[in-house]
Each structure stands twice: as C-alpha cells, then as structure tokens.
Amino acid sequence: MKPTLLVLAAGMGSRYGGLKQMDGLGPNGETIIDYSIYDAVEAGFGKVVYIVREYFREQFEEVVKQKYSNVKCIDGEPLQFEFVVQELNKIPARFTLNPERQKPWGTAHAVLMAKDAIKEPFAVINGDDYYGKDSFKVLGDWLRAHENTTGTYCIVGFELDNTLSESGGVSRGICSYDEDQHLTLVEEHHNCMVEADGVLRADNSVTGEHVEVDGKALCSMNMWGFTPDYFAKSEAIFEEFLEANINELKKEYYIPYAVDRMIKSNTGKCDVLSTPSRWFGVTFKEDRPGVVAKFQEFADQGVYPTPLYK
Fold it and tell me: What are the C-alpha distances in Å from 85 to residues 11, 112, 216?
C-alpha cells in the first residue's frame, strides 16, 4: 500500500504577500512543495492530492504536470496527481452561505474536499512548509502500519526549538499527550521567540500569560496522518460547527478542532509522533533569504539533487 499526500495549497500568504506555494526558493527555482513531494516519494507515497482555489487551479495544474511528468514512485510506477477545489460554497446543502463571508472555512474543511479522491491512509501537510526527510519517513511508516485500522490518527510533532523564525515571534500549538503517546491537547501559544536574555517565551492563548516554554516541547506544524474513516467523522463535526457558526464571517474549521472533538467524544485517538527534522517556511518576507540559503546548502551538501527534477 502506498499512502497519499494531501497538500493544502489553497491559502494565500497574507503576511508574506503573495502565492507562497508558487515561489521558487531552490537553486533552480524549486518550490517548497517540490521538496515535500521529493521527500514523500522517497518515503513511499504514491499519489499527491492538491487542495487549490479555482482562480489559480489551471496555472497550478499546468506547472505541476510539466514539472513532475517523469517522477516515479519507489516501485517504478508513475506518481499520480489529483486537484481538488476548496471554495466557500462547498458546504452541506441544508446550509445557506452568508454572502458577506470571504474567509475560507479552514484546514479541516479543506481536507474534507478530498473525501472522494482518497481511499487509502493519507498525510496532510501545508504547501508552504518544509518538513524534512525524516518527518515523511516517520509518517509514511505509520500510515502503512495502519492500513487496516480505523479511529486512530497521528500528528508529527516538531521540537519547538526546530520551528522558530529569526524574523519575529510565531504562533505554535504545543502538544500535550498521555503515557501512551496519545494526544490530549494542542494549546496555542503566540509570539514564540527567544528573547534578549536567551530565554524562549510565548503568550499562552488560554491564560493570556507570557510564559517560559520548553524548547524540546513537541508542537504541531500541521503534519497529520489519517485513515479514510476520518472523513465521515470530520463531516459530522463540520455540520455541528456550521450550525453554530454559519453566519460568522471569520470562524474557521481547523484540523486540531476536529481531532480534539474526536478525542473528547472517544470516537478517535491521535498518536503523537516525533521527528528530529528542522521545520522552516516563509512566515514573513524576511524569512525568504534564509530559506533560499538553506536550500542552496542542501544542494551543496548533496542532500538533494540539483535540479531537483529533470
């Protein structure tokens, strides 16, 4: 069984100021998604499903098909692709969309858009995040091991120290888990950064306190593993969410919210995996030169071929 990679690529980077997913950052114009797909293929994935918006789907699809036309899976089969559109009006028929709403419905809604395209265990990642080779291997192994299971999902936790930006404070969801490594809570912390005295601190979103945080704490970078039964459960939770929020203009249905609801209702549990990989991405415009330098360093060290795809 080859798991599928679901790439959340519908978002525009408001802080970054452009379509981050199409930005060439590697030595030969490679995007962050290019590296994620390369690592996923090496880790045994067989299909990529992109969640996109209608207004850039055609351009995106054309670029993808040109770039990856010769990519083979580890068993020699061609890598498969599918493109799925996320739009505001893609909600259950019994709900009426507020015409003033402009904001997308969030990451868990985006995942639901792929329910007809995915029948096997699958990973979910952000299109604009670099997760590292080890992360895809850890996740790919977990997905293959859970081919015939239901009700158990996973999250890949990154050490907080390995996710910080040199350009400013970042928001991170810090994971809590029990002795069986099952997720119990993802608690959002804002303005995570090493301060002038060398101490890592953040604002706890629940208490509002400015607290010292452990750099080795595992945090969510939106890298998840699901079996296909997740779709039906998430769809039911989304309907409940819409009943309460259909007229809200900014409320979003996020993956951690859906998973938390499953944990609390005992309809699902979530393994917390860990990775030694260092995450990076272009959170701020100021991050871009550092990311470009990092990909150049990978090329110089032979971590990746250059160009990545021929």
Answer: 12, 11, 37
- pTM, rounded to two decimals: 0.93
Asked whether residue 110 is assigned to any structural domain, the reply reads yes
Indicate whether 192 belongs to any domain.
yes
Task: Give the CATH number of the domain where residue 185 resides.
Answer: 3.90.550.10
Q: Which residues constitute the domain of residue 221?
A: 4-301
By DSSP bridging, strand 183-194 and strand 200-204 are: antiparallel
Which residue type does 188 have?
Answer: E
Core vs surface per residue 265-286: b (16+ CB within 10 A) or e: eeebbbbbbbbebbbbbbbbee
pLDDT tens-digit series, residues 67-106: 888 899 999 999 999 999 998 888 898 988 889 888 889 9
Q: What is the C-alpha to C-alpha distance for residues 297 and 14, in angstroms, rounded to an integer?
A: 28
293: which residues sit within 8 A by CB, 6+ positions away?
A: none
For residue 13, how many other CB atoms are within 10 A of its CB?
18
Long-range Cβ pairs for the range 265-269 (8 Å, 24+): 267/151, 267/233, 268/151, 268/152, 268/153, 268/230, 268/233, 269/151, 269/152, 269/153, 269/182, 269/183
Q: Which residue, chain included where needed, has tokens 């789907």?
A: 57
In a domain, 306, yes or no: no
| Residue 265 placed within a domain | yes
- Segment 149-162 mean pLDDT: 96
**How many domains are contained in the chain?**
1
Residue 19 has pLDDT above 80, yes or no: no
Q: What is the pLDDT of residue 12?
A: 41
- The Cα 287–Cα 25 span in angstroms is 11
Q: Does residue 13 carry a pLDDT above 60?
A: no
Structure tokens at 65: 């098909």
Place of tokens 């080779």: 133
